[in-house]
Amino acid sequence: MKHLISIRDLDSGDIDRIFSITEDLKTKYEAGLREPILPGRVVALLFEKPSLRTRASFEAGMAHLGGTTLFLGDESGFGKRESLEDFTRVLSQYVDVLVVRAKSHATVVEMAKFSSCPVINGLTDLSHPCQALADLYTLRELFGPLRGQKLAYVGDANNVARSLAWACARTGVALAIASPRGYEFSGDFVKEFEKDSPDAVLELTDDPAEAVRDAAAVYTDVWASMGQESEQQQRQRDFAKYQVTAALMAQAAEDAVFMHCLPARRGEEVTDEVIDGPASVVVHQAANRMHVQKGVLAWILA
Q: Could you say which of 8, 41, 53, 128 is catalytic?
């Protein structure tokens, strides 16, 4: 049984297969064909955090594939009315896949232990694998083969950055991350990453201009993620020099694109001029969440 808890769970062959399925399904979708290859299959969406893209893309994608979804929030008693073990063992008898958007990564790991069906991480504090897969698939559509490309990430080395690091390592993309001191990857993560992926190119710096130099894409995320609202003012001060502006974009490759996982705080991590400009692919990137997740569902249920 396959799970998708972290990009680290995948090898390059898995990602190639997911992308191949995605390309086939997206090509058919754009030609007006929504191929129902998963008829009768049911996906349960268990969400502890708010969502637009993750929820809507999984619900729409599963409908295209001929299956259905169950959205389960607080009313289901997720983690409250009974033990996580009992909850997971029972729910996994009713559905074919669990998509879990949890506050703690440990929750998703524990559910995968107890579940009798595949578990997909829809976002945790440590990882956002579906987002990273959609990001790399978008780069592949825009620039062709991924190996040898460079992606620059400017901002907090958060769950998205960690997932991008693993995804880039698996696909041969060089990743440069510019973060203020105190917001970079932990030393433990770097040691773990270098041990797992000794051939990966990972550049860590506190200089945004250095990170974006020659990059095919410049990526950022909010300075304060969900659950960090109390840190907002401090983070605004600490990240003030890490805003993606037109001047910063000009230091990347000539045809560089701008990426963001959304939602964005316009005027903070990115200016309107950039996110609304011709280099921005944020809508394309968001649309690919649905297409790639269809590929993941088809792959995981094969």
A: 128
Q: Is residue 148 assigned to a domain?
A: yes
pLDDT tens digits, one per residue of 56-77 = 999 999 999 999 999 997 778 7
Q: Which of 221, 243, 285, 293 is catalytic?
A: 221
Host H or E run for residue 296: helix 282-300
Write out pLDDT tens, residues 261-297. 999 999 999 999 999 999 999 999 999 999 999 999 9
- Catalytic residue, chosen from 8, 53, 64, 101, is 101
Residue 55 falls in the annotated catalytic set: no
Helix (H, G, I), strand (E, B) or coil at 185: coil
Selecting among 135, 156, 261, 293, the annotated active-site residue is 261
In a domain, 153, yes or no: yes
CA separation for the pair 230, 218 (Å, rounded): 27
Range of the structural domain that residue 55 is part of: 7-127+287-300
162: domain CATH number is 3.40.50.1370
